[in-house]
Each structure stands twice: as structure tokens, then as C-alpha cells.
Amino acid sequence: MRLANLAGRAVVVTGDRAVDVEQASDGRFGSDPQALFDDWQAFAEWASAVPDAAAAASIAFEATRLGAPVPRPRQVFAIGLNYAEHAAEAGYPPDEMPVTFTKFPSSIVGPEAVVELPEGNVDWEVELVVVIGREAHRIDREHAWDHVAGLTIGQDLSERVTQLQGSAPQFSLGKSFPGFGPTGPWLVTPDEFADRDDLAISCTLSGEGMQASRTSMMLYDVPELLMRLSAVCPLLPGDIIFSGTPSGIGNRRTPPRFIRPDDVLVSEIEGIGTLTTHFTSAP
Known about the structure:
Elements lengths: L1 E5 L2 E6 L2 E4 H4 L15 H8 L4 H5 L2 E2 L5 E2 L8 E5 L3 H7 L8 E4 L5 E2 L3 E5 L4 E2 L2 E7 L15 E8 L2 E2 H5 L6 H4 L6 E8 L11 E6 L2 E7 L7 H9 L9 E3 L21 E6 L3 E9 L2
Parallel strand pairs: 6-17, 8-14, 9-19
Antiparallel strand pairs: 1-2, 1-5, 1-14, 2-3, 3-4, 6-7, 10-13, 11-12, 11-17, 12-14, 15-16, 15-18, 18-19
């Protein structure tokens, strides 16, 4: 199943068409995409067998009308240095515990967003984003995927001056400017992937290839991340986890390359699709 946010309404995507969840379910499930995670199991069971009549009544849609598939997460976790080659380019040895921070929820936007660049050096990071469908607290690896509603694409945009200033880095602030959390284009449930633990992941900036890897190269895979995070705090339905980025970011290039006005960032993950973000200068 592919669940999307179409102009603020929850839809199930079939090809290039969309089925309105509230209308197709006769009001059993509402139009708010975020609210669906509160009863995810029931919704997923219904959506896996969307009535033929509902599919026949689906509508074509424009990608520009898509919003963030999880528009108002209560918790946003973000993982740093989760690919060995990225840890190496950043000058950090792999650690025993994932580097964990947050992107504040107000930074979350959907596909085709236009992001105003603040002062400083804005960098890109393509990431697999995990969406929680069932509360997870102190879970083991073997049952971790049972708590996942689906996967989507994320771009962990980072203003490096703010992030690295001072004696103690300000990761969360430097990564939470307005629009710094693009996600989308939709959520894809785990059953849709041939191998949910090994997906090609890449991004281009204005047509130039910047990052390319596979999620199987993560130091801490999805079950390991959920196990470690949930050992500390409960993961709630509708929470999202930015799972880390491969090598190829801008501030580790020679010379450094940062996002400029009119740049276009396109991120792609196998089995999900593409996520495009446009950039402009601040007024």
C-alpha cells in the first residue's frame, strides 16, 4: 500500500490515481493523514483490500498537491553517522550507540517544497525515513518490523554554521529551519518491498550525482535502531525516524559544495520513488 497526503487529505495511491480514504471507507477512517496512525492496524487491514468500487472512483492527481505523508509527528528522531563511509568522511569512528538528535516537527514539509535558504552553508543528506505504526517500548530485533507502518524518503537539510558553532554542536537547531525536513512522496508499507533491508538510495543536486549507496550498508539497520531507541523512550504511532545518510555530503567535498538559490535536490529510494525539493534565496 502507498499512503499519501493529497492537499491535506489521506489517500491510497494506485499508479497515478488516488482513492480518498474518508470517502471510500464511508467515514470509518477520517481524512487526516496523521490520525490514521492512531489505529494503524485496522486501517492497514482495510486499505490492503480497498473495494473495487473505491478504486474505480479514484482520481488522477498532480504531484505538486502532495504533502508530507506524516504531517505532524509527535517525535522526530534522526540518526547521524549510520553509514561507515559517511562516518569515515566525517572523521568519526563507528560508535557503540547511534548518534541521535531531533529535527523539530515544524521543519517537516512534503515533496516539491520550495525552501528559503537561511544565511550560512546549507547541506543535503538523503535518508530512509521509518514511520512507526504501533507503539514500541523495549522491543527486541525479531519483532521490530511489526511496529513499522511504512517507509518514505527524507532529506535531512542542515545549516552547518549553526550546527557546528560553539563548544557543543547544535545539531537539532541547525537541522530545523523552516522546510528542513522534506519527506515523501508517500508512505510505502513494508510488504511492498522485495527486500526491505536492502534498498538503493541516492540523490542529485541540480542534475549532479551526489550520494549513492544501499540501505544494507547502514551500521544500524531498522530493527537495530528501533530496539536501541525504544530501550530509552517509547516510540509512538506516527513518529518518524531519519535513519542516517551515506557519504557524499557537501561539507566533506573538496572544495565544499553547498546548496545555492535555484538548486533542485532530487532524492530517490528503490521501491518508494523520488522526492524533489526546490531552493530559493530568502527575501
